[in-house]
Amino acid sequence: MPVRPAVSWSSTLRLPKSSFPPRPLQADQAKYLQRCTDDLYRWQSREPSAQKPFVLHDGPPYANGSLHIGHALNKILKDIICRVKVQGGRRVVYVPGWDCHGLPIEIKALEKQHASAIDGERTLDAIAVRNVARELAITTVEDQKKGFKEWAVMADWENAWKTMDKTFEIKQLQVFQEMAKRGLIFRRHKPVYWSPSSRTALAEAELEYNEDHVSTAAYVKFPIVNVSDALQEKLGKLQNLHAIIWTTTPWTLPANQAIAVHDDMEYSVIESGSDQYLVANTRLEHIKELSEKKIIGTVHGRDLKGSKYFNMLRGETSAPQPIIHADFVTSTSGSGLVHCAPGHGMDDYEVCKRLGIEAIAPVDDLGCFTDAAFPDRPEKLKGKSVFKDGSKAVVALLGEQVLATHRYKHKYPYDWRTKLPTIVRATEQWFADVGNVKDQAQKSLADVQFIPEAGRTRLESFIKGRSEWCISRQRSWGVPIPALYKANGDAVLTDESIAHIIATIGDRGIDAWWMDAPNDPAWIAPGLQGTYIRGKDTMDVWFDSGTSWTQTKEQADVYLEGSDQHRGWFQSSLLTHTSASGNEYPPFKTLVTHGFTLDQQGKKMSKSIGNTIAPSQIMDGSLLPPIKTKKKAKGPVSQALGADALRLWVASSDYTKDVVVGETVLKFNHSSLLKYRITIKMLLGSMHEGARKSPMTKLDEIAVFQLSKVMTEVKSAYDNFEFYKGVNAINRWVNTDLSAFYLEAMKDRLYCGDSGGALEDIFLGFMKMLAPITPNLVEESWAHRPEWMDRDGQQVHPARQPILDLVSSPRSTTDARKLEKAISFITDAGSAIKAAQEEARGQKLIGSSLECSVLLDLPLELHEIYTGLADELATMFVVSGVGLVEPNTEPEAEWRFSTEIPSHHPDAPSWKVWVVPPKDAKCPRCWRFVAPVDKLCQRCDDVVAINAREESV
After folding, report:
1. Is residue 235 within 8 Å of residue 269, measured between CB atoms?
2. I need a surface site. Which of 1, 71, 677, 822 has the fewest CB within 10 A?
3. What is the pLDDT, as a whole number, of residue 109?
4. Rounded CA gap, 731 and 727, in Å?
5. How many angstroms separate the CA atoms of 309 and 321, rounded?
6. Where are the domains of the chain?
């Protein structure tokens, strides 16, 4: 067989050819983005229209500021879920929304007009604030929408809603009306969280806790002026008895109305000079000033009830105040006697309300004392900030009544917007009665799927701990509480009055609530007699977003937000839905929560720390060092891989925990994405039409089997919202099964043989698995597919097909169990062969793996597997030949290296592979050592002859 003359044998090879670029071309990205987002959403809205819709309801991002990495985590997770459902044949309904009201936007509006919301000297009227705030929100919504689209988030953008839309506000007011009709809305003077820096009441969800807040704590003695009969019976006449309290907020002492003890606790009466002091037995040693004094008696808390004490801060003519019982008094802190200021404490308020004790709070909106703080000499406290010099001034006024002060570091609630401390302050506010609906709300969660499951306990604990929800805010930018007020301050809130106000807003617009004259009769429902003015309170923004379930026609399949929303949007949505809808089910079927984003050191990202990463930095590759090229004129190659780089980071993260983003993580994902592109380019360049008619080899069957397994694993992960497991499975398959095994083994057949194989199956399967994760890459790959793939017009886009559909799997006839055994055999032998080859390379006996042959020393139980694979083992191991050797004998060869393979079963023997020199010469075309000297191998000779005949025709 003489060698046929050829200028170069490489010209006879079928090398991969594809127009697919190694990196995304910026000029093409817009069209791919359009196809995989807007076009796909419109198609799926139209084509599977008969299917029951899958509704993912958007937890509205706040229309304030630029997008950050947390937004990317949230929005891309939602998009992945929607794309998975589209692949499954569902019609997805995903309408984005924005939360537009609230204080941060109002403050920006004030700042923009060079007005201060804090100093009270320059303020805009409500309409001016609302106009500027609305413009700011509109601009932010458009900017954020643009960013979301750049991340390849597909949605019904044209019908996106905003909480400041008139239709949304009307529906929100109707929810309020329904709750009021059911008696769940009321007004009360009671303590709420108040932010002096924002001058408004706050919800618990608007607080963040500073673990390092430092207060001036004090031990204070109050003289007991009326001693109870029980106490006198036990200890006789006590001339100068004092109750000792401990407080971390001395500024609340002007509002003190009672001292609480616990009936069952034991208290000591301590004598010091001519004075006596009451302290809990267990706390005596903690008060150094009294720890070594004489104990003259012990009593129970119940013996103290009926005693009264005098608080000089209430004024010289004020009445003595009572000592009462409270369950919250403990023996593990303070003095065992608790100062009660019902105007400044939630627990204090509840216990005092039952006893008819008034809640007073002599502190104004700015957190400064009023005249009532010290009635005898108002100037001593009036105007002083409770946080700056208020506590110090109170301590000074009490003088010798203060036994001791000390600095105390503790956890304290801060306004999450201004990052400044809050106070608890009794004011007139509107509340939603959560206590009457929370049991029903909790029961409705029984059938809800929580991801992770720990979210169930977290949400239920928040619901269980609530009784009343303060829903009113003292701001201009928001939806008004639809209440009217009489001249004496009494509020009117009837079904008829609310309905009339809603109708008037429908006619005049919501701004008219602030624009019209305060007593404009147009707002007064027919039948109401007298003069009324409209209130100025607006609704809590959590009530705004919490009523967004009105935007969906049915129960949402998924709510997905950060874990902080258990105390925020998840909770407000559930409570308003339970209160107003009349349905026994919650607004969601599945509740998915994700963690926060952390830097590489595990620290929470913060602008103040300077450790934030912008989504754009991941997309443009600027966080990674540029690739240096040998061609200096071209300069370094950009690392930009676009939205897919950002999306792959999201998809590869276990979002149920806090998520780390940093150079190490991004480098790994970047490498994976480049690996995808290299693999896709190889597949696109090697797929040939004739492969559809080519017989399935055992290698092909194994490849399709491995593909089917990974697709099953990926589908299961996607269906269970475990996207990171799906990405891990894809990466493992690409690196091990596809690149290192199948494509490596297939190169000879692709370049030098019949170019058959299962590449089309692999390409389509790969695209389907990547479609929810990296849609731009899939769209780009699909655009570069060979023309013959679309010639019959029956090709369906991978993003529109179920993941598990394969093209040629019916051509595989081998039993799955046999394939599993074959794969195990090939894997064991392949690893052993590589180990033996490395020894040969170490002695410079071989370079390429084709420069050797393999002999197998097999036990009898493996001979059947060997026989079934014998014709293809050399291809699978990428060697020039594979044969058997007599058991327990060394082959005769110029050199030989062996590796022993231990058995997987205790009763089965181990076996061995030998790497030896090949018997034949190197084929100059395919480089396998299977040819006579200076001649082509038989396979290459046949292929070249066939090609020559085809060219001549």
Report:
1. yes
2. 1
3. 85
4. 6
5. 5
6. 16-21+617-814, 214-413, 817-919
Instruction: Write the pLDDT tens digit of every residue in 15-50.
Output: 888 889 989 998 999 999 999 999 999 999 987 666
56 DSSP β-pair partners = 558
According to the CATH classification, is domain 214-413 in 3.90.740.10?
Answer: yes
Q: What is the DSSP string of 354-367?
A: HTT------B-TTS
How far is 254 from 251, CA to CA, in rounded Å? 7
* Nearest-angstrom CA–CA distance, 187 and 486: 14
DSSP-assigned beta bridge partners for residue 269: 278, 297
Q: Does domain 16-21+617-814 have CATH number 1.10.730.10?
A: yes
Fold of 817-919: hypothetical protein PF0899 fold (3.30.2320)
The answer to whether 102 touches 62, Cβ cutoff 8 Å, is yes
Exposed/middle/buried for residue 848 (C-beta within 10 Å: 0-12, 13-18, 19+): middle
Query: To which H or E segment does residue 396 belong?
Result: helix 391-398
Which CA distances in Å does 310 have to 226, 313, 319, 321?
A: 9, 9, 7, 6
Whole-angstrom distance, CA of residue 459 vs CA of residue 571: 7
Q: Which two tokens stand for residue 419?
A: 């990052």
Strand partners, 632: none
State the amino acid at position 197 in one-letter form: S
pLDDT recorded at residue 637:
66
- pLDDT at residue 17 in the model: 87
Question: Between helices 69-87 and 643-651, what is the axis angle to 10°?
Answer: 80
Task: List phi, psi (to 5°) of 384.
Answer: -80, 135
Spans of the chain below 50 pLDDT: 1, 6-7, 115-123, 633, 807-810
> pLDDT of 465-498, one tens digit each?
888 899 999 889 999 999 999 988 899 999 999 9
- pLDDT, residue 116, reads 44
SS3 for 625-649, per residue? CCECCCCCCCCCECCCCCHHHHHHH
Distance CA 740, CA 671 (A): 16
Write a three-state SS string for 527-558.
CCCCCCEECCCEECHHHHHHCHHHHCCCCEEE
**Three-state SS string across 677-699, please?**
HHHHHHHHHHCCHHHHCCCCCHH
Q: What is the dihedral of CA 670, 673, 677, 680, to 10 degrees?
A: 160
E strand spans, 153-206: 161-162, 185-195, 200-202
The structure tokens listed for 588 are 């969601």
Of the candidates 758, 759, 710, 757, the one whose C-alpha atom is nearest the C-alpha of residue 737 is: 710
Write out the two tokens for 146: 């643009």
